[in-house]
């Protein structure tokens, strides 16, 4: 049974809503597991094996180049999905086809023996997965009524945050079996996305009015004026700052354990997996609890602000205690803060979108997703510059991360259209 919302929306109810919500959670769980396992463990290990002396700079270069493609791909794919007309709907073709292409490229990465061949295939995988992700995210705006999105965002956020942890755990324990690890991530996301499309049939879009492709108008649509849409701009800034801080630490976590804490290669792989288990426990509790409370009280901003502040406190722990005890504290506190932020962030983003009669949610959410992708370009490069400037002292990264995540909290206060 469906309830019709805006002209371009069919809001799901009852069992269909529960099924779609659970399916989104599983898909985002696997996608985030892939990202965290590959970016946080498998690629850093593979790059270090290829050239130990240049591992930090090469990792920063890989993040920077692939994130440029991610940043360009996400809003364009979102905009094209808005215009897609098929009997499978607007979003489903992008989810199914892109997942297959991305998984094929990702599995190929496991066989690469040079940095640049690895880079090419990982770029291909990144472009494909970033063509799929905005379509999945936009389904929350397409299919769920605004007053229910806090709960949906909480469940999906719990899946995402649990996936970030689970991916690190799996990759940490399978780091010595590279082909198996890459194949597991690639196969899981492809199978899940195909099942998602088959189980959750999207309303056909082939009868919707077709929008002529005028390239000037198409490209102009990617500019959303901060003056005309200030809440959208503040939400973008908040997301940008928090991911600048979070990515700076997350991208170098394996090297932090080795070069800042002093663990060996094997011990650091096990430690990063065990830390992820600790984080997982706090992430799931925080995500589900925050999403439920957010819908109950119809408040988004307080949870996003508090989550940002808690994340800042987590970054301080390894500075105060530069041992594994400090890292355990970081793992637990970051779980609470990041879980709270991610569970509500998605609901908040869907409620600051510019109003459009054309159905541009995919494009607009794609633009907001670039607030995650751009830090993937900048933050690893920033971290590498800080390490070079401060004699490989990882404390500089933590201090920068604290400033960014606290800045994210400040950007939420001016948002007026969401409470």
UniProtKB/TrEMBL annotation:
Residues of the Major facilitator superfamily (MFS) profile domain: 21-419
One MF term in the entry's GO annotations: transmembrane transporter activity
Tagged with keyword ATP-binding: no
Gene3D superfamilies the UniProt entry points to: MFS general substrate transporter like domains
Classification via Pfam families: MFS_1
Membrane-traversing stretches: 24-47, 59-80, 92-109, 152-174, 180-200, 240-258, 270-291, 303-321, 327-353, 365-390, 396-415
Subcellular location: Membrane
Main localization (coarse): membrane
Protein's recorded name: MFS transporter
GO CC terms of this entry: membrane
The entry's keywords: Membrane, Transmembrane, Transmembrane helix
Membrane topology category: Multi-pass membrane protein
